[in-house]
Amino acid sequence: MIRRLLVLLMAVTLVAASCGGDEEGSDTTQPAPLATTTTVADTTTTTEATTTTTVATFDIVDAVLDYTSTIPDGWMAISDTEAFKDAVDASGALLLDVREVSEYEAGHIPGAINVPLRTVTDNLDKIPTDRQVFVYCKSGYRAGLTASSLRMLGYDNVLVYPPGWSGWTAAEQDVATDDVAAETFAVPDIPGELLTAVDDFMNNIPEGYYTAGDTEAVKSAVEAGAFLLDVRTASEYEEGFIPGAVNVNLREIPANLDLIPTDKPVIDYCKSGYRAALAVPVLHVLGFDNARAYTGSYNAWTDANEPIETP
Asked: Of 4, 65, 261, 296, which alpha carbon lies 20 to 30 A from 252's?
């Protein structure tokens, strides 16, 4: 009996030993879960810097107004021959004869170079900007067209000798027949639209140079519906004007374009014809291809004893 108990006791002991574990060697800590990496989408919006370049819009009306509104007293002219000679001597001015080649070759003011009117804008490199320039023709009209055109292009050093070749020879001044070689000068930076407009005007001046004819021709044109534009000052206009004429001072033409028609002939005049010549390029460059000048102007009208009006 005792022996059976011992056997049973030994069997229980062995079973217990086989079911037990080594505590020091066993890891009872649960493994930590794997770290989860969460990728967050970059929601930041990157905006590239945008540079806006504002291109200045060229306004030809403003450009022409810059010229007309700054026309000085005296209308850019020296009419006295002796004063003209003194000015040329004192300034070392360039003399620009804008008559035709045949006229120039027949005789010209000593030292003058020849650039015919219609080719002036094709020869800007012959005209300096850093010294005085005097323009002349036969009687002053073509010189007025030239000076006004050059002034619009920024040549504010240009003046006119209105008596021209006729006045020079009448004063029995020296004449020359040699061909004076022109120098070459830098051409200033001129806005393309303005240069194109002035060049188009100069290159296409017709026979007659945009003149409206004598007093009788002007009367007939007015009777047929032509518009008369008096470009003198308001004070001159108030003293008397050709009947029906509307007054727009030469200096203010670009600011009063709404007063000038485009659907009928426009004939401009002043006192003697010189300012009328200055006005013609201004009007044409601004789109009034219907403009002509009454070269005799108010003096010729009153000399012919034609009627006048006052406001």
From this structure: 296
pLDDT in tens, 17-59: 343 433 333 333 333 333 444 444 444 545 555 565 666 689 9
Average pLDDT over residues 89-94: 92
In the chain, pLDDT over 90 holds for what percent of residues?
81
Residue 47: CB atoms within 10 Å = 5
Domain boundaries of the chain, sorted by first residue = 60-203, 215-304
- CB 114, CB 97: distance < 8 Å: yes
The H-assigned helical ranges of 20-163 are 60-68, 81-91, 101-106, 141-152
pLDDT of residue 24: 35
If one counts every other C-beta atom within 10 angstroms of the C-beta of residue 283, the result is 25
B/e letters for 55-71, b = 16+ CB within 10 Å, e = fewer, are: eeeeebeebbbebbeeb
Q: What is the pTM of this model?
A: 0.82
Identify the CATH homologous superfamily for domain 215-304: Rhodanese-like domain (3.40.250.10)
In angstroms, what CA-CA distances link 33 with 26, 30, 36, 37, 124?
Answer: 19, 9, 9, 12, 89
Structure tokens, 130? 């850093």
User: What pLDDT shows up at residue 36?
Assistant: 42
The C-alpha atoms of residue 20 and residue 65 are separated, in whole angstroms, by 114
Say how many residues make up the chain: 311
What is the distance between the alpha carbons of residues 4 and 146, in angstroms, rounded to a whole number?
148
Of the candidates 186, 185, 122, the one whose C-alpha atom is nearest the C-alpha of residue 149 is: 122
Q: State the amino acid at position 137 in one-letter form.
A: C
Mean pLDDT of the chain, nearest integer: 88
Q: What is the CATH number of domain 60-203?
A: 3.40.250.10
